[in-house]
Amino acid sequence: MTDMDATDQAILRILTADATLKASEVGRRIGLSQPAAWRRIDRLTQAGIFQGRRLDLDAEKLGFGVTVFLGVKLAAKGRTSLEDFERAVSAIPEVQTVEHVLGLYDYRLRVVARDLADFERVLRRRIMTLPSVGNVESNVLLSEERRPGPLG
Amino acid sequence: MTDMDATDQAILRILTADATLKASEVGRRIGLSQPAAWRRIDRLTQAGIFQGRRLDLDAEKLGFGVTVFLGVKLAAKGRTSLEDFERAVSAIPEVQTVEHVLGLYDYRLRVVARDLADFERVLRRRIMTLPSVGNVESNVLLSEERRPGPLG
DNA sequence: GATGAAAACACACCGTA
DNA sequence: TACGGTGTGTTTTCATC
Questions:
Q1: pLDDT at B2 over 70
Q2: Residue among A49, A50, A101 minimizing CB distance to B142
Q3: Distance from C-alpha of A45 to C-alpha of A53, rounded to nearest angstrom
């Protein structure tokens, strides 16, 4: 199941960078024929390695120039608090990601806004009014780099 | 450029959830013929709305059961400090994302590890030894939900 | 909506290590 | 036995009319 050789890892590296590539192109890049590459991709697919292929949007092109990470500490933490918080935060369109975490904060949110003035509106009227919300910390995104991560 | 109607937004919602869907299937879901859907997708593509299609891997299936978010505050912050830090952090395979941010922290890192013991190794031998690293805060990921975000 | 062209898939079969 | 190459039928998808 997790017996991946260097070729499989190369395939994952290629597909995590660009999932639109076809088996023939993947094969060409690693020196494999189309059927051989297809067989390997199929095997990885069967193994459930792939979680999904998502389309990444260019937030700036859509008019959202500001991305902010929020660390949220809840004031009260019962089971209902978590559920209420999650339900309420899911209704805020500006929230792109909701991460339930362990540590100094209880939740990390990725929020986009048109500009800083718009972000202030979201923060004051949407975030600070969430149920059970306690301390909130903001980090404005300057730049971001994604890497394939370890593959085996 | 940003003149998107509700139909375009529906298309973006569908494709951000599953980028493998073809024009015909997208059209079927929103009550549009295949060519009509294709033309709209093509127009959105030309507008540069799409940043890329990436394959998401199942980290657990690869043997990485632990995901941790690190907030890093640098001890010294000259131009060279930032560059040295970024170069060094890029050499750590366990780091999936490097975000340069403004606020209480200077960088946010998404790090995966096989388990908590493995994470401790990464933290002590890789992260804490980075150049200019000051305070480091860890948040262990429990669960994560991604949402389409605002589309217009 | 129909349709032709292009391409990508997916299998069979064989060779090799 | 496992893996790759070649060849090929079939399906899907694109893209125009």
A1: no
A2: A101
A3: 12
* Dihedral pair phi/psi, residue B17, rounded to 5°: -80, -35
Distance of alpha carbon A60 from alpha carbon A58, whole angstroms = 5
Residue with tokens 């990470």: A69
Tens of pLDDT, residue by residue over B104-151, are 999 999 999 999 999 999 999 999 999 999 999 999 999 999 998 899
The amino acid sitting at A113 is: A
What phi, psi does B130 have (nearest 5°)?
-65, 150
Contact A54 B54 (CB under 8 A): yes
pLDDT tens per residue across span A78-132? 888 899 999 999 999 999 999 999 999 999 999 999 999 999 999 999 999 999 9
Q: Do A149 and B69 touch (CB under 8 A)?
A: no
Q: Which residues contact A14 (CB under 8 A, 6 or more apart)?
A: A21, A26, A29, A30
Q: What is the mean pLDDT of residues A133-147?
A: 96
- Check residue A61 and report its DSSP letter: T
What's the CA gap between A111 and A94, in Å, rounded? 5
Q: A48-77: buried (b, 16+ CB within 10 Å) or exposed (e) per residue?
A: ebbeebbbebebeebbbebbbbbbbbbeee
Tokens representing A86 are 């999650």
Give the nucleotide nearest to A35 (CA→C1'). C10
